[in-house]
TrEMBL record:
Annotated CDD domains: AAT_like
Keywords: Aminotransferase, Lyase, Pyridoxal phosphate, Transferase
Protein name, per record: Aminotransferase
NCBIfam families assigned to the protein according to its UniProt record, in alphabetical order: PRK07908.1
InterPro entries, per database record: Aminotransferase_I/II_large, NHTrfase_class1_PyrdxlP-BS, PyrdxlP-dep_Trfase, PyrdxlP-dep_Trfase_major, PyrdxlP-dep_Trfase_small
Protein species of origin: Streptomyces chromofuscus
Amino acid sequence: MPTDAHDLRHHGDAEVRDDGAALVDLAVNVRADTPPAWLREVIADSLGGLAAYPDGRRARAAVAARHGVGVERVLLTAGAAEAFVLLARSLKVRHPVVVHPQFTEPEAALRDAGHSVDRVLLREEDGFRLDAAAVPEDADLVVIGNPTNPTSVLHPAAAVARLARPGRTLVVDEAFMDAVPGEREALAGRTDVPGLVVLRSLTKTWGLAGLRVGYVLAAPETVADLERAQPLWPVSTPALAATEACVGPRALAEAAHAAHRVAADRAHLVAGLSRITGLRVVEPAEGPFVLVRLPRAADVRRRLRDLGFAVRRGDTFPGLGGEWLRLAVRDRATADSFLRALERAVASADG
């Protein structure tokens, strides 16, 4: 089990938790200006049913229909984070492996459940691309993000699927896949990959981090195992209403439009970053965030806070060090203001 000093429980919200109102937030990967008014109305309308216990059947059926699978392959969860805990507590595995750098909660959940976790560290010189040969053949649980947080790398679906083996559970965190135009390289909805478990989150695109909305897509026997580990009524009535709404035709069309807008805004941000001397962007970036490497990143991050901007430190991700920062994609006006502040922060750190 790794015993290094990475803080696996540090997340982007910590960058803005205390004085976030005074900062422009580029630390948290939740789409700005969300939830939209129509979704807030759906959630508000659900409050009239709070006296009754939550009934997830309609939301579960809606998720199943959205991905073209049977309801027995769907488990609704209080965000993707709950799914990691359920997997860690329910699966009987001997050799779990987490592919890093990636979201740290899967490893934290596994370690909390008493598992000894091996890490596969993807390399900067390879563009943090998946190296399937680096995954031990005897691993019976493999966890990978796609697109990966924080690298913004989108792995080919075929390459990820090739990690599947008889007797192995392959967990693919697709929390940011709906921010990819066309959701290309998605494995959600696939039933031909043995041991596949796909996790989805609705909190990022729809701004529902405070409501906790997510789901699991897996074989019926895996869903049943995870469901037995859940408490009764794990997803609230407002969260169920939001889930049903966010997988409907209107929401899917809006999310598709937002994905194209994020791609354009990301390209604008990357172009500006490329003009800053000494800074390197991990490319091609495909998620609603970018990973950058620059000298004295910790000093730059502190100076950015003084200038009114919060960004995500990268040194809490295994495989990264103190010279890395993750930047959420925002609209062009915000990006331009940030780039001016970043140039000042870099110059100040260099001085």
